[in-house]
Specification:
Elements: H1 5-51, H2 57-62, H3 70-74, H4 80-84, H5 88-92, H6 99-117, H7 131-146, H8 149-170, H9 177-181, H10 185-207, H11 210-221, H12 228-237, H13 239-250, H14 256-259, H15 265-272, H16 287-299, E1 301-304, H17 312-325, E2 330-335, H18 340-350, E3 355-358, H19 363-373, E4 375-380, H20 381-384, H21 390-393, E5 399-402, H22 414-423, E6 429-432, H23 441-451, H24 461-465, H25 468-474, E7 479-480, H26 484-487, E8 494-501, H27 505-516, H28 520-525, H29 535-549, E9 554-558, H30 561-571, E10 575-579, H31 585-597, E11 603-607, H32 608-611, E12 622-625, H33 632-640, E13 651-658, H34 662-671, H35 675-682, H36 685-689, H37 698-714
Parallel strand pairs: 1-6, 1-7, 2-4, 2-5, 3-4, 5-6, 8-13, 9-11, 9-12, 10-11, 12-13
């Protein structure tokens, strides 16, 4: 074992690692302390408000009747809040209140206040800001901006310090050859063992690039505070991340049984005990999402049936990322064609995993590439049926994910047989579905037969009749479902999803004609010109069907009346609207009121330029935008009709887009605008009243996009 110079260099490197680990922990701790300090006055206000409504008699309950309250009541102390806000000296000035009574009353009030503090939830509303809430958003902005690397770095730093600090102390004699000469045999052996342990820890840290991680996170955490506008804009863009961090930091959050899908205690404990490796993740998971990923890993062959909007895709990606961190190299995702592009984008955005689309004319080459190099193969049900299955191609995925699993409920169909060809030979299989299985017991039994045949006979229709909780407990080994109401207790988040599609052949023909004619507005409508084959319309139907399965109301916005007519015909009877500019304001509100009065699912159509002004549509929790808008303010205003105070559910916004089209060109150009300026404009009263004042010129944008698309098509790109 080398000593002297080699040992000194090793110990110096360990010293540097300890220094960077301590620094990132200090930086992370200061950022958390700043956020907690900003949170405290908001919590105090909420607690005081709650205590003001709790009668004084509750102090007697807490002390089991040992506290005499008569003197306090006579002095006008009628609520717990009044006592809690009073000092000991002041209470003792009340006739009949001695030192013991004052102390007991204050202790009981503090006990109740502590319990109340655990139940209140701070809500941040970008439309109704105040100084204290703004200070909290700014403090959280620093932590959210550092991203998932911040908690990851803090965890790694703590673990590294426990490995290095004792080793450095024990290996101290190795810093000097002379000191080693005068070290006894036993002490020398201990020193050499410590050096060996340090060498392993330092090598592991180098392999994981921990010094780089610590340095990058410290830089992020040491940035100056954001401006008020920048922080609020960022909050509006990703409010779910702010609320997730707030819940984690304050120790509040959903009821644990609800967040864990009301699983039996033993099963929940086992899932909870699995440590999720997030090395390959690029996002922070909410607590229930982490539990969902761990459930899939622990139970191996399951159905994740969370209500739409709760992030089933990211939970599946987290499970794949965990397996990749433990050596798995090949994964398979099977999904409808309408979400294939989204899966590829989500995998790349939320993880370091490589997405390999296996679809279209080049699918055989892509499949061969995946077999050779690994990654996440993303394919459609129809494409999968044309490929050899796992045993035939000699590749066994670490996990198979099947999205919209109800597509394979009938085992006799070609798509089901293709999926079974892979799943029967794969240890881990994850089915995803957003529809409540307790309402579809036979469908559930069919899916379970493919995953856990031994469980299927025990599932009977009576389980569904007994209610959702009874059903979930009965099928717990293979099924996990959480509802929005169970796990999202804060002011509802605004969840945005860009639904990217590819033109069908007929769509593309209509688009080429519009581009050739230089007709910008027809280019924007081309995706709906052939309803029978429209990719956008197909995805819209799927989103509406999933919302219907969950009893959610939907608002569909388009700039074009023609598109809304097409959507109405596609969805059939029972659709409200369209709300358009030609309707009198009173008639518009009548439609909105009738839509809101429906018990459960309903669909309202609206022209986006009319739906964004003067109407409140809080009944809806799903918004579908048929196309991107030239004026971002118009889109923002329309969404704001649903996402505002009074809304009691998370609002999901699905924007339908086509790759390599006018949609993509519009987004590319608008994204180049300065985001902060756009945000200032969006949030100003002037912008709310006159979007034209801040958005790019319609004519200039249209000409530019038409010219770019004509050049692209002429070049055959």
């Amino acid at each position: 074992m080398p000593t002297g110079r080699a040992a000194r260099e090793l110990l110096e490197e360990a010293d540097r690692l300890v220094g960077t680990a301590r620094a990132v922990l200090d930086d992370h701790g200061r950022a958390l302390d700043t956020a907690r300090a900003a949170l405290a006055p908001l919590l105090d206000t909420l607690v005081d408000r709650e205590l003001a409504g709790i009668p004084l008699a509750r102090l007697g309950d807490v002390t089991e009747g040992r506290l005499r309250l008569g003197a306090l009541e006579q002095a006008g102390y009628l609520t717990v809040g009044r006592v809690h806000g009073t000092g000991r000296y002041e209470l003792r000035q009340i006739p009949g209140v001695g030192a013991q009574t004052a102390d007991r009353a204050l202790a009981a009030a503090r006990q109740i206040a502590h319990a109340v503090r655990d139940t209140v939830a701070v809500r941040m509303d970008a439309e109704s800001t105040d100084a204290d809430t703004t200070a909290l958003v700014i403090a959280l902005h620093r932590l959210v901006g550092a991203g998932p690397d911040a908690p990851r770095a803090a965890t790694a730093a703590r673990r590294l310090l426990t490995e290095l600090e004792p080793g450095l102390a024990a290996a101290a004699p190795a810093r000097s050859r002379l000191r080693m000469l005068f070290t006894g045999r036993g002490a020398r052996a201990d020193t050499l063992a410590a050096v060996t342990s340090l060498r392993t820890a330092v090598a592991d840290a180098a392999a994981r690039d921990l010094r780089l991680l610590f340095g990058q996170v410290s830089v992020d955490l040491l940035r100056g505070p954001a401006s008020e506008a920048e922080a609020w804009v960022d909050f509006e863009l990703r409010s779910a991340e702010y609320y997730s961090l707030l819940a984690e930091m304050s120790g509040t959050g959903p009821d644990r049984d609800a967040a864990e899908g009301f699983l039996p205690a033993g099963l929940a404990d086992r899932v909870r005990g699995l440590r999720l490796d997030d090395t390959h993740l690029r996002v922070s998971l909410r607590g229930y999402q982490s539990f969902g990923a761990r459930f899939a890993l622990a139970q191996k062959r399951v159905i994740l049936g969370d209500e739409m909007g709760l992030g089933k895709t990211v939970q599946a990606i987290a499970a794949l990322a965990h397996l990749a961190a433990h050596g798995e190299t090949h994964f398979l995702v099977v999904c409808p064609a309408s979400v294939l592009i989204n899966w590829g984008r989500e995998i790349r955005a939320r993880s370091t995993l490589r997405a390999v689309p296996v679809h279209g004319p080049e699918r055989d080459n892509a499949f061969a590439e995946w077999r050779a190099d690994g990654g996440v193969a993303v394919t459609t049900f129809d494409s999968l049926a044309t490929l050899p299955d796992g045993p035939a191609c000699g590749t066994r995925p670490g996990m198979v994910v099947v999205d919209e699993a109800h597509f394979v409920k009938n085992p006799a169909t070609r798509r089901s047989r293709a999926v079974t060809g892979w799943t029967r030979h794969t240890e881990r299989v994850l089915f995803l579905t957003g529809t409540p299985m307790e309402n579809r017991v036979e469908e559930f039994r069919s899916l379970v037969r493919q995953l856990r045949p031994e469980l299927a006979p025990s599932v009977t229709p009576t389980h569904g009749v007994a209610g959702s909780h009874a059903f979930r407990r009965a099928v717990a080994p293979a099924y996990l479902r959480r509802n929005q109401d169970d796990v999202l207790g804060e002011l509802p988040a605004l969840v945005r999803a860009d639904e990217w599609e590819e033109f069908s052949a007929a769509d593309l023909e209509a688009y080429h004609e519009a581009v050739g004619d230089g007709h910008f507005m027809r280019m924007r409508r081309a995706a709906y010109a052939r309803p029978e084959t429209s990719a956008k319309l197909n995805r819209l139907r799927e989103l509406v069907a999933e919302a219907e399965g969950n009893g959610l109301k939907v608002v569909v916005f388009s700039y074009f009346r023609e598109v809304l007519r097409t959507v109405r015909e596609a969805l059939g009877e029972g659709v409200f609207g369209p709300v358009s500019g030609s309707l009198p304001a009173a008639r518009r509100q009548e439609l909105v009121d009738a839509f809101g009065a429906v018990d459960g699912h309903a669909v309202l159509l609206g022209q986006i330029q009319a739906g964004g002004v003067g109407l409140n549509i809080q009944a809806a929790s799903v918004v579908i935008l048929c196309e991107p808008q030239i004026k971002p303010t118009m889109e923002h205003q329309a969404v704001a009709r649903t996402h505002r105070m009074g809304q009691i559910r998370t609002v999901q916004v699905h924007r339908l887009l086509v790759v390599d089209s006018v949609d993509q060109r519009m987004l590319d150009i608008l994204a180049r605008k300065d985001r902060l300026f756009d945000a200032y404009a969006r949030r100003s009263d002037v912008a709310e009243a006159t979007p034209d004042a801040v958005d790019v010129s319609d004519g200039a944008l249209a000409r530019r996009i038409v010219e770019e698309e004509q050049r692209r098509m002429a070049a055959g790109v």
